[in-house]
DNA sequence: GTGTCGGCTGTAGGCCGACAA
DNA sequence: TTGTCGGCCTACAGCCGACAC
């Protein structure tokens, strides 16, 4: 009948296979999830202690509902600006409609965190896959006129090698997405000059995922040689969700009441973390928080760097100066450390970047730099627009000076490791 | 470029025109909204007093998130089982993705409802349009193979009359949807035997709205002769929305906290009412509530009727018997009237119907019936499956007996008027 | 090395009346 | 009266190398 899928596509094996149930209850492939979440996202390990910031949670909810965090809503039921919690569970998910990745965390508030033995919590983990590539789609890639142009080194690194004795060399690829749905593509090496292409099956994928030029697609080869694929929507596409379920005010209250009730009764509560929606992480490893708050001397005028994700899904550091200190909302959330630093950014293109950040988000440039700043760091020098990786020498120096300043093991919680996985292309 | 709409369609005038902003802030066409909401949905007038039931609100949220109303969540912050409120504002909306209709109500809790003068609130209003038709789509209607077959009487009633001197008679129709988006269709009268069809433009509409066989489409001609169109999804398609924004527990808390805070501070709060998602209305006109609670004698064994919407978007009444009385949740919500009646239904196909209803949802069959029940109402008689409208004689009798029992004006709040608008086809 | 285009081809989208329920 | 189908035509999806940045 008319409700069945097109027969030809199904017969030729280029139609998607059966998908998971819509509920998406199981835990997703962690490598793929992290690849889609991006290089900056790391999740604290289950069983570790974390600091939960209701303000940050509300910021995420407000961003999701496209409302500013309403100033008129009181802190009701009353709740402190941060809760030390045991991270009881983390499950990885992806939105059934948009493939947007998110994590559900189950938090158990700890009543007297100071009394507990400070076990050596390990830092946050970010298992970024090694054998993967990520390409931002061009107009040609997403048009119905043709297929997908695979970057040469990407194809050679991630896809099975073609049999080049064939003319033209071609094979069928099967890649599994976050919902365990299989997608079939014809991979061919042709054209003058020769190039790798995905042809048959590609347009089905593009239309099913509603991909547009500017969105990114990524392929992974996992340990068992299985191909995985995921997508990252362009930043402009805010997954608008005016949510006809609950008013934004009620959601705001819900965040507070759920946490308040859990803290009062020492019971668990659940939150969703949307890495690509939230302006900042609001569940921070306790060790990272402690180091940032107790081991860092911040003053107005201090110079720092902070990591951002580039449009090419890579990372780069931006320079800034601390211009002020103080609570973002001293009435409702006094003595919170959430975004307690007012900052200015060196580059004029910094319009979108936050004007308030939290202590644990920055990498301070300590005394050695203030005594002897290299020319590249002065406020007046106009550097050419930096490319990913052109700070490598500085990185090395930074690590040494920070170790000297903070006592050797400060780096683990600041996520220096494994950041440059996408810059080698 | 590739992001622009198909040129041919745009040039020929069969592509949708510019739409409203995604936020959908303005108030929608009320006639169209009510047509999409269905014949049973009525909204209390702005400025009237209503009763708000948190339990019912939570039921709707749970239905939207596909969770049962969790039994483990306490009534926190504490809130009474019902709040008498002033209905401060009502705005009509439609989901940007699904066209699902919903209403936002702003409620102001009234502290001492008994002290206020009981102004004669008018009953709820349901402006169902007169010049409209609604058709459930067939497999042929939604397939890409052809167009849309318009029922003859529908075309003659709602569409502009064709010029039958042309061969074949044809015209272009422009119909506006809930988002003020215009859709263009070619309306032609052809075939052997002759019939009305929508051809060019129809498949664009079907794919844009993602209509499937079983969904319904409805057309309205308003006062100014402007054509409006709306859709009703088939019941099976639960707009699943696991809502990666807030956990269902937090939403539950949010409902309670928002209402609790508003009641405590005598301030307004906002709720969304999703007519086609909610099992029952949870904002009830105060007058309707009072009449049902204080003027109705309910006892176990009592017979009643209740109105339901049929699959054909019409209405019919089902017979039932009260089998028990009592709070649905005596621990958290004692002395609530929400679904306080346990009921059984006469027909064996009653599997989906609620086993608990509220007083104001039923039409009790009062003493005259108990003294002298007509054969059709006895529990043992097996009536043939009733069709809409075959209770007309009974209706007439019911009205008289109820007026006698309840004092003359009881009918307005029970929505007897204007119910049979779709059964005449 | 790869983004975009013109050219070509095949298929499916879509308009028609036939026919039957 | 209207749901489904076969027939038919054509627009566009989609594969190809050319060419340029």
TrEMBL record, chains A, B:
Lineage: superkingdom: Eukaryota
Signal sequence bounds: none
Compartments it resides in: Nucleus
Domain TF-B3 residues, every copy: 133-235
Role: Auxin response factors (ARFs) are transcriptional factors that bind specifically to the DNA sequence 5'-TGTCTC-3' found in the auxin-responsive promoter elements (AuxREs).
Family under the similarity heading: Belongs to the ARF family.
Subunit: Homodimers and heterodimers.
Protein name per UniProt: Auxin response factor
Taxon lineage: Eukaryota, Viridiplantae, Streptophyta, Embryophyta, Bryophyta
């Amino acid at each position: 009948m008319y409700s069945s899928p097109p027969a030809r596509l199904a017969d030729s094996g280029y139609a998607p296979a059966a998908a998971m149930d819509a509920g998406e209850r199981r835990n997703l492939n962690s490598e793929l999830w992290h690849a889609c979440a991006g290089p900056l996202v790391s999740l604290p390990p289950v069983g570790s202690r974390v600091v939960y910031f209701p303000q940050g949670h509300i910021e995420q909810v407000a961003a999701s509902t496209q409302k500013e965090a309403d100033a008129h809503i009181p802190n009701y039921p009353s709740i402190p600006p941060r809760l030390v919690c045991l991270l009881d569970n983390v499950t990885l998910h992806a939105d059934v409609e948009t493939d947007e990745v998110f994590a559900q965390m189950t938090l158990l508030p700890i009543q007297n965190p100071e009394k507990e033995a400070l076990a050596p919590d390990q830092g946050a983990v970010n298992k970024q896959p090694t054998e993967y590539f990520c390409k931002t789609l061009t107009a040609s890639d997403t048009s119905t006129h043709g297929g997908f142009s695979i970057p040469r080194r990407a194809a050679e690194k991630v896809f099975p090698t073609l049999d080049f004795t064939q003319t033209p060399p071609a094979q069928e690829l099967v890649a599994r997405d976050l919902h365990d749905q299989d997608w079939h593509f014809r991979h061919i090496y042709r054209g003058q000059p020769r190039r790798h292409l995905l042809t048959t099956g590609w347009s089905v994928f593009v239309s099913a995922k509603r991909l547009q030029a500017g969105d990114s697609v990524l392929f992974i080869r996992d340990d068992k040689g299985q191909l995985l694929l995921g997508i990252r929507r362009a930043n402009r596409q805010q997954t608008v969700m005016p949510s006809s379920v609950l008013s934004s005010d009620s959601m705001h209250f819900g965040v507070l009441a759920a946490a308040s009730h859990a803290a009062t009764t020492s019971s668990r509560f659940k939150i969703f973390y949307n890495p690509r929606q939230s302006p900042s992480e609001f569940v921070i490893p306790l060790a990272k928080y402690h180091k940032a708050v107790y081991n860092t001397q911040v003053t107005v005028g201090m110079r720092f760097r902070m990591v951002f994700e580039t449009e090419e899904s890579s990372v780069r550091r931006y320079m800034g100066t601390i211009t002020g200190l103080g609570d973002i909302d001293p009435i409702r959330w006094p003595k919170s450390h959430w975004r307690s630093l007012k900052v200015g950014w060196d580059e004029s293109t910094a319009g979108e970047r936050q004007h308030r950040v939290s202590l644990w988000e920055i990498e301070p440039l300590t005394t050695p730099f203030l005594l002897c700043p290299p020319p590249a760091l002065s406020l007046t020098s106009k550097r050419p627009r930096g490319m990913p990786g052109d700070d490598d020498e500085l990185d090395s120096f930074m690590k040494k000076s920070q170790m000297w300043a903070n006592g050797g093991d400060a780096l683990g919680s600041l996520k220096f490791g494994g950041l440059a996985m996408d810059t080698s292309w």
